[in-house]
Each structure stands twice: as C-alpha cells, then as structure tokens.
Amino acid sequence: MIDREQRLRSLLVRGMGGDASAYHEFLKALAGHVRAYLRRRLRALPDEVEDLVQETLLAIHNQRHTYEQDQPLTPWVHAIARYKLVDLLRRRQAVDALNDPIDDDFPLLVDGEHEVADARRDLGRLLARLPDRQRLPIVHMKLEGLSVVEAARLTGMSESAVKVGVHRGLKALAAMVRGDAGKAGA
Fold it and tell me: Which domain holds residue 143?
C-alpha cells in the first residue's frame, strides 16, 4: 500500500513537472485504484462505476494544481472521489424524486426515509461529540467501510491506534445513547 502511494505520488509530481509519460502512467494506475474505491461504495449501482471513475479522473486532472506535494496523495484522491460520489447520489435522488411510485405503500416508504434521515442526523450529532481520535476511525471503518490500514493512512494514526479508537469510540457512543435514553425517559 505504501509503495503504491509513493509510486503514484512520484508519478504525479513528475507529471506536474512536465513529464507527460509519467502523468499518463499516473492516470492509468490511479484509474484502477479509484475504480476499486468506488466499486466498494457503489455495490448497489455497479453500472455507475465507470462513469464515476472518469468524472473523478477528470476532476483530479483539473484540480491537480491544488495537490500539496508534501501531503499524502490517497486522502486527496479519496476526497475528490467522495465529492463525485455525493454528486452522483444527489443527481440520482433528484431524478428518483421525479418518478414517485403510485401505489398504496408509498406513505410507508416516506416514513421509513424520514426515520433513516433522523437516524443519520442523530448519529452525526453523537459522533460530533467524540474526539477526532475516536470519531475518525469510526467514520472511516464503520461508515465508509475502509480497512484498518486505509483508516490509519487517512488519519495519520497507527493501525493499533485506529483499532483502539474504534473500540473506545463505540463504547463512548453506547454510553451516550444509554445516557440520552435515560434523560428522554425521565
């Protein structure tokens, strides 16, 4: 993983310095990395992966001047890919909103969507109360589905610190939920 990061970073830096063949090699190698990243997140929409890979590579190309060469490359690439993924999901949501189902179960589906939105909002509030060393590993591993290695690289933490952060963070979240539930019942 570290070798791939260094290789991609080296190719990008050389490409930004004018080495066209290094830049071409960078984009080709990066396409595979981005494709794997998006496939994990778009299991329910596999037909969207290739278009999103191309959109992400184009955005990386257009924004390459914003890359700080002394920083890790993978978090920068993942941030751009996440933005493109969110854009896709927003576009799909807008199209889906125009195609309302006409059946008797529709009100039940709307209530379920509100519950999911409420749960996401509540989880976001609880996570915001955690320190970064607990919140970030939980977000990356449990919500985004990244591995311990990937989460460690993104956060700058050691792998064991990421594991400890997840464990302690989940324990803290459970205590918050129990505490909040106790207050709500009072």
Answer: 103-186
